[in-house]
Amino acid sequence: MKRIVPVGNINIGDGKISIQSMTNIPVEKIDETLHQIDKLQQAGCDIVRIAVPTMAAVKAFEQVKKQVNIPLVADIHFDYRLAIAAIEAGADKIRINPGNVTKSQLDKVIDCAKKHNISIRIGVNSGSVNAEELALASGNRSVALINSLKDYVKYFESKDFYNIVLSVKSSDVRETVELNRMAAQLGYPLHLGVTEAGLPQQGMIKNAIGIGSLLLDGIGDTIRVSLTGDPVEEVQCAKDILQSLGLREGVTFVSCPKCGRCSIDLENVAKEVYNYVKHIAKPLKIAVMGCEVNGPGECKEADLGIAGANGQFVFFKKGVLYKRVDATCGIEEFKKEIDLLL
Q1: How do the domains of the chain map onto residue ranges?
Q2: Where in 118-161 does DSSP place strands (E)?
Q3: By C-alpha distance, which of 63, 51, 49 is closest to 18?
Q4: What are the residue ranges in the chain where pLDDT is below 50?
Q5: Which run of H or E residues covers position 6?
Q6: 288, β-bridge pairs
Q7: Contact at 8 Å (CB) between 164 and 122?
Q8: Cα dihedral angle (239, 241, 247, 251), rounded to 10 degrees?
Q9: Are 187 and 141 in contact (CB under 8 A)?
Q10: Angstrom distance (rounded) from CA 287 to CA 296
Q11: Are strands 18-22 and 222-223 parallel, antiparallel or unpaired?
């Protein structure tokens, strides 16, 4: 049976898949950090991670923590003192690679986390496997990483600490899936993601395949879509993945590929409608079609649909045409119909 691990007011492992992202500016820029957290939260982020590389960053983290109501995770590398300071500053969880600190230093971090009743994410990735583990696994990097993760779990358990979330990532999609299928046997919540996935177009595809494959198998409890760019895009992509799999309520948006029958600027119409509905939390299906031919059939399951029709837009409800408007005001009228539906 899998454990449930609390992170602030979120329970990881309780069946609901939470969305995470990470601020990408120095936390010492407190106002900018707060603004970015607000944007992430509005986009649908459940948990925010912040890099804490210095003691000055810890102090700024503490100030940020006092002004937000979303769980904050302190991302720590190498210096165990930063982990302890971040916990004392109010972090709801810390992320640490135990291989980057000594056992005695790790013990101090565990003791502090126990005292403050917070969780720890144990993170290992393809770039951190050491030569000794690799040799023991006969050069198999996936096995080496999982063996390393198992050793860390055993160590935490030997210290009577169980509030742990596991993370094992690779920049390779196949390896990420393979690793997490093995990690799922350990009985702890899993943080999923394809690390260093690249720019949005490429990174979204990698994450959708990797994260989606695992979630379809019932593996994974919290996700972070790693992209080189605006972290708000990470959140939107994560929401799209969950909604596509029926794991989170929200708008299902469909639009047809453009063909020679299309008489409207389909791409821009679709973009405008999508941007209008993407933050709606209700389970609606909205469709944008390029011509009347597709309307009745393709919009049959849509709560609302719009299609171009030679200087007009036609509106559909569950595939039934109920309204025609001039193309010059079609999009605004369609937005009003969406508002009425809500």
Answers
A1: 5-244, 252-341
A2: 119-125
A3: 49
A4: none
A5: strand 5-7
A6: 255, 306
A7: yes
A8: 60
A9: no
A10: 11
A11: parallel
Q: Residue 135 has what pLDDT?
A: 77
Question: Whole-angstrom Cα distance, residue 220 to residue 179?
Answer: 12
CATH classification for the domain delimited by 252-341, as one of 3.30.200.20, 3.30.413.10, 1.10.274.10, 3.30.870.10:
3.30.413.10
The percent of the chain in helix, strand and coil, each rounded to the nearest 5, is 45, 20, 35
- Judge whether 285 and 274 are in contact, CB under 8 Å: no
Statement: the pTM of the whole predicted model exceeds 0.85: yes
Question: Between the CA atoms of 194, 197, 199 and 205, what dihedral angle is there, to the nearest 10 degrees?
Answer: -60
Query: How does DSSP classify residue 95?
Result: E
Q: What does the alpha-carbon distance between residue 110 and residue 84 come to, in Å, rounded to a whole number?
A: 9
CATH superfamily of 5-244: Dihydropteroate synthase-like (3.20.20.20)
Q: Which of 217, 237, 236, 120 is nearest to 176 (CA)?
A: 217
Edge-first strand order for the sheet with 320-326 is: 252-255, 285-289, 304-308, 312-317, 320-326
State the residue for tokens 């109920």. Answer: 322
- Residue 9's CB is within 10 A of a number of other CB atoms, namely 11
Strands 312-317 and 304-308 turn out to be antiparallel
CA 281 to chain centre: 16
Residue 160, phi-psi category: left (phi > 0), alpha (psi -120 to 50), beta (remainder):
left
What does the pLDDT read at residue 294? 63
